[in-house]
Amino acid sequence: MISAKPSLPDPGPSAGQLFAASDRKRLGGPGLRAFIAIADLWGLGEAERMRMLGLPGRSTYFGWLAKARADAPLSLPLDTLLRISAVLGIHKALRILFADDAEALAWLRGPNSGPLFGGQPPLTLAANGTQDGLLLLRRHLDAWRGGLFSAPLPALDDLATPIGDDDIVWI
């Protein structure tokens, strides 16, 4: 017998199954320690660090730091782990694209007139408090290192002209 009801593909495991509490506990401490090391390298202040982590309360943030530094079990929220993952990806891409940390930091902190940044430093986008800001910067750098923007030239974004109102065509 043929069913009139179409069969849907299996959606796979749910987010709850992919990110079990045991996995978040296993990844929390090492992930936060890596984030701290990168934040130190980038010279981030407390406010920037907290925004990148999703604006946890100060007592929560310092509790996480204490546990991470003491190698105590630490279960971070999924949102925080995703943000840390984005920071790790940004750091990795910067290491691939630039010859040394000073060059990478100059690009990260310097003004950028590319359409994604609007004259602001890329770090401003990453530290704006949204997960989207971190992921946009990570995708930008991943595309750059994948060749989408040609060779890694620090001023490459300055060559692109932003899209203006006159570029929009209504049909």
Structural notes for this entry:
- By secondary structure, the chain is mainly alpha-helical.
- The chain has helices at residues 15-18, 21-42, 46-52, 58-69, 78-97, 101-109, 122-126, 131-145.
- α2 (21-42) packs across α4, α2 packs across α5 (78-97) and α5 (78-97) packs parallel to α8 (131-145).
- The radius of gyration is 20 Å and the shape is globular.
- The protein starts with 14 loop residues before the first helix and ends in a 26-residue tail after the last helix.
Please outline the major beta sheet: none
Taking Cα atoms only, what radius of gyration do you get, to the nearest Å? 20 Å
Beta-sheet strand percentage? under 5%
What is the helix content? 40-55%
Overall 3D form: globular
Please work out how many helical segments DSSP would assign: 8
C-alpha end-to-end distance:
48 Å
Low-confidence stretches: none
Would you tell me the overall average pLDDT? 87
> How many β-strands, per DSSP?
0
Structural class: mainly alpha
Would you list the SSEs in sequence order as H and E?
HHHHHHHH
